[in-house]
Amino acid sequence: MRKWVLSGILATEETYLSHLEALLLPMKPLKAAATTSQPVLTVAQIETIFFKVPELYEIHKEFYDGLLPRVQQWSHHQRVGDLFQKLVRQKERYKSRAAWALLYKPVDRVTRSTLVLHDLLKHTPTGHLDHPLLQDALRISQNFLSSINEETTPRRQSMTVKKGENRQLLRDSFMVELVEGARKLRHVFLFTDLLLCAKLKKQIGGKNQQYDSKWYIPLTELTFQGPEETEPLTIPQVPDEELDAMKVKISHLRSEIQREKRANKGSKVIDRLRKKLSEQESLLLLTSPSMPLRVYNKNGKGYGFLLSSDYERAEWREIIKEQQKKCVKTSSLTSMELQMLTNSCVKLQTVHHIPLSINKEEDESPGLCGFLNVIVHSASGLKQSLNLYCTMEVDSFGFFSSKAKTRLFSVSSPPPQEFEIELEGSQTLRLLCYEKCYNKTKQNKEDGEGADRIMGKGQIPLDPQTLQGKDWQRTVIPMNGIEVKLSVKFTSREFSLKRMPSRKPMGVFGIKISTVTKRERSKVPYIVRQCLEEIERRGMEEVGIYRVSGVATDIQALKTAFDTNNKDVSVMMSEMDVNAIAGTLKLYFRELPEPLFTDDLYPNFAGGITLSDSVAKESCMLNLLLSLPEPNLVTFLFLLDHLKRVAEKECINKMSLHNLATVFGPTLLRPSEKDSKIPTNPTQPISMGDSWSLEVMAQVQVLLYFLQLETIPTPDSKRQSILFSTEV
């Protein structure tokens, strides 16, 4: 495990050294030109631009050269602590304010090294000779980061106002404001005495960044609950199809940029592609948030923001309410004071860029694509026993969405619950803990929230280097006095999507659908009929049905029951959370040795959906569908009718036809391993720019096409078989 952690730091050091080498290349000719009659830059300017770069290169080169042979000749007794000690001691010389301003990246390296030292200590026995050395290196590194924070935070986040009072910036973020039904991108600043909403001006002719003030509310006058007559916020919804089309374009542009880089094409081509990418990402960030956050001034005038997650909304509410307890004086500003405050935001801001690809570092992780297994072991810290549940959110394409929900549990004895969450370029896992309220009439008036109350929240980064191993990683998420213990394990795309035939010939999972229906003497497998019947009975109004993950242990229990033909399976299902039943159905289709749409016909479906002529497309797609083997066709039509009925309750369950196609498309169409186009390099996390993303979008479009057809004409013989057979 120690060698695995060190291999990760070697890879990042190698990347960092290559960046420093690239900086050093132009330094020598610029220095030589500085002594001529027509210098490009003065010596002082060169010293400023390349501040400490040669020294940094030497420090990291020495560290890398020392670490590499030790990792290559690894043994259980190998020592590396002395190398880390020397590295962090040399970095201490850069903790002056001037160095901090110019050396954000080196300080970021210290932060990463600190995390690596934590990991190394976890896997180094206390009796090992390396243990005291690593402890000392960690102490030095932590002291260094603390001193940086002490020196820089007041300078960057505060300003003096009249009468010598100190106004500090507590939080800032780019947010979407809803203005007269239109979405507008804003930069919101929370100070110790007021909330300021500003608009970033367009930069023209190389001018410095500037802000325009849109409005502000003193914290003493700010409320989250408007007057009784306040109209509900009407949120303009962007169709899921449009959002998905943006994601397709983004994935395609990312792939093109990587292809051009590998081909060493001119920078103009890449710049043009990056501009298009930024436009699409900006549009997606503007149109995707839909969770309202409203604030009101003392006159009852409301301002509405749209956020992507309950976590973010809770963060803003908490920090504002906490500061309001400390704020006793109303701050009204003159127009001049407001202008000065707005101008100061350029220097005070902590969030400098909209979260777009163009604003990311070259070596920054593109995020993880695959499946994350999460076990919620326990929750402790509450003084009284409550009915609690947790939800999990992960990010994708710059915004968060809820992916899993635990069963209700009492804080005194929460049972372990396991989930499988799909990741799409994800970098963070968030956890929210709610108290369940059974009084349906008790509706929170703030933004039309439900009555369930957030008791705590926390998050952990999804670090590719830490999670690329096959071992479970244990962690604790502290949140508002509650501690939730988790284990997480990541499975990359190429391993998680294999269709593996079952070794249990009498089971149903991993067995050909024709074999199962023949054995059961039915048209549709028993497992499909049972799951759909139970979901239709009590899951049609469940928010996020099929999208929200069920408890993995419940899903595995149902899988075993169906595989062993357990007579009590219907009783088990009636006692389980409906999301576990939905998860069992999805798992059944995902583990078929061949997709429901078959390997042979998959390329034809993928080609047919791209036809531009609607008549030709319908003819092609219907002919392909009716070419499926009868058990596949009958099962698909049975499922299709059910999914349409689910979508009819979209206003309650939030599952549109498109959402359902997104969930089931890859499950029903993804080809077997031998036909998959997914790359199989296990050393590289699969990014959203890979061909997999575009392939999945095509699978979604195929299923969506059939979901949107009002009727599917089938030959009389098959229609009779499907509709009137008592064996279905």
Automatic annotation (TrEMBL):
GO biological process assignments: signal transduction
Residues in DH domain copies: 1-86, 102-151
Transmembrane segments: none
InterPro entries linked to this entry: Abr/Bcr (IPR037769), C2_domain_sf (IPR035892), DBL_dom_sf (IPR035899), DH_dom (IPR000219), PH-like_dom_sf (IPR011993), Rho_GTPase_activation_prot (IPR008936), RhoGAP_dom (IPR000198)
MF GO annotations: GTPase activator activity; guanyl-nucleotide exchange factor activity
Keyword Signal recorded: no
Gene3D superfamilies from the UniProt entry: Dbl homology (DH) domain, Pleckstrin-homology domain (PH domain)/Phosphotyrosine-binding domain (PTB), Rho GTPase activation protein
Name listed for the protein in its UniProt record: Breakpoint cluster region protein-like
Gene assigned in the entry: bcr
